[in-house]
Every structure is written in structure tokens, then in C-alpha cells.
Specification:
CATH architecture of the largest domain: 2-Layer Sandwich
CATH superfamily of the largest domain: Band 7 domain
Number of domains: 2
Shape: elongated
Number of strands: 4
Number of helices: 6
Distance between the termini: 126 Å
CATH topology of the largest domain: Tetrahydropterin Synthase, Chain A
CATH class of the largest domain: Alpha Beta
Length: 202
């Protein structure tokens, strides 16, 4: 009887162990399966492939490539690690001075002078030493830029127009207003100077 009891106790001890082993093996198998799936996914999505080198705009120009397209063939964002922000362009990779980029706004600006019956009519061109992206942004937001520029012009009073430094001050105010608007919409201004190609007050 004592021997039978001992056999029963041994069998009782062995049952939990026999249930535990398949659970452990199943858990290990599941971990291996998940890890294998993750590695396979990373491999097939190109995670382990080396990233293509990023060229600066100067290097792209020297190689005869489009300066607006990065090494991965994408335009704009992610370019040169600057999130698509324009970069200054040199005349050549060896040059020390930066090149100038000009853009003339086609239509004239015509506003009434505050506190006067006079009218101010101007045409402007802007200068930047950054790449074509600044010019593209100027074209893209031309209507909004014209609005803020005319608001700046409307603040001019008759007495201001007669001051010798009026045109210089107005150009600076227009530049600052343009950059503020571009920074709002594109997170970068880039307008360095505003030039008057026509300036009439009558």
C-alpha cells in the first residue's frame, strides 16, 4: 500500500512538469517567430541597405545635376539634412563669394498715400543668395506677399515721402514683411534686399 501511495505521489508530481514544458517551448517558438518576422520585414524594406550619399547643391551643379533634386531623387524636404530649407549657392564650388539670385515681381504696386491725395506706384525686384527654392516660394505666395507689401506701403505718410532716406527705409520694411510671411508659411525667408525698378509718387 505504501508503495502504491509513493507511485501515485510521484505521478502527481510529474503531471505539472509535463504540462509546463510545452508552454515554455511554445513561448520560445513564438518569440523566435516574431523576431524572425521583424528582421525579415526590415530586410525587405531596405533598412539594412546603405543610404545614398547626400550631395550639396554646389556638388550637384558641379556634376551637372539638378540643384533642386537630392541624391535620392526627391525634391524639397530632407535635402542636405535641412528639411528642405534653401542653401546659399556659390558661383562654383571653388568660389569664395556667393552668387546672387534676382526675381522681379511683374505687376506694379499702387496705393494711396495716407493723409494725402497722392498715389505711390512702385515696381520691385528682390535679391537672394539662396537657391531657387526662395524664388519658387516668392512665386508660390505672390498674392499674400503683395497684400502685406501694400499694407506696408499704405503706412507711409506724405511727410515721410519727402525724407531722403524714405526709399531705403521702405525697402527694408518691405524685405522684413516679406521674410516674416515666408517664414510663417515656409519656415524660411531668404529675401536679402528689395530694389525699386520703378518708383513714382504723384
Amino acid at each position: 500500500m505504501a508503495e502504491e501511495a509513493a507511485v501515485v505521489e510521484e505521478g502527481a508530481e510529474q503531471k505539472p512538469k509535463s504540462k509546463l514544458i510545452p508552454i515554455i517551448l511554445g513561448a520560445v517558438g513564438l518569440i523566435v517567430l516574431v523576431a524572425g518576422t521583424m528582421l525579415a520585414t526590415l530586410y525587405f524594406t531596405g533598412f539594412f541597405k546603405p543610404k545614398p550619399p547626400t550631395l550639396t547643391a554646389e556638388e550637384r551643379i558641379a556634376l551637372g545635376l539638378d540643384p533642386e533634386v537630392d541624391a535620392a531623387g526627391k525634391d524639397g524636404k530632407g535635402k542636405d539634412g535641412k528639411d528642405g530649407k534653401p542653401e546659399k549657392l556659390k558661383k562654383s564650388p571653388q568660389a569664395e563669394r556667393f552668387d546672387f539670385n534676382y526675381f522681379k515681381m511683374e505687376n506694379e504696386f499702387l496705393v494711396n498715400v495716407t493723409g494725402s491725395k497722392r498715389v505711390m506706384s512702385i515696381q520691385v525686384a528682390v535679391m537672394t543668395r539662396y537657391d531657387q527654392k526662395v524664388i519658387d516660394n516668392l512665386k508660390k505666395h505672390e498674392f499674400a506677399l503683395r497684400s502685406v507689401m501694400m499694407d506696408v506701403m499704405r503706412q507711409s505718410q506724405d511727410a515721410d515721402i519727402n525724407k531722403p532716406e524714405f526709399r531705403v527705409d521702405l525697402a527694408k520694411k518691405l524685405r522684413d514683411a516679406m521674410n516674416a510671411l515666408l517664414e510663417k508659411f515656409e519656415e524660411f525667408g531668404g529675401v536679402e534686399d528689395v530694389f525699386f525698378t520703378s518708383f513714382i509718387v504723384q
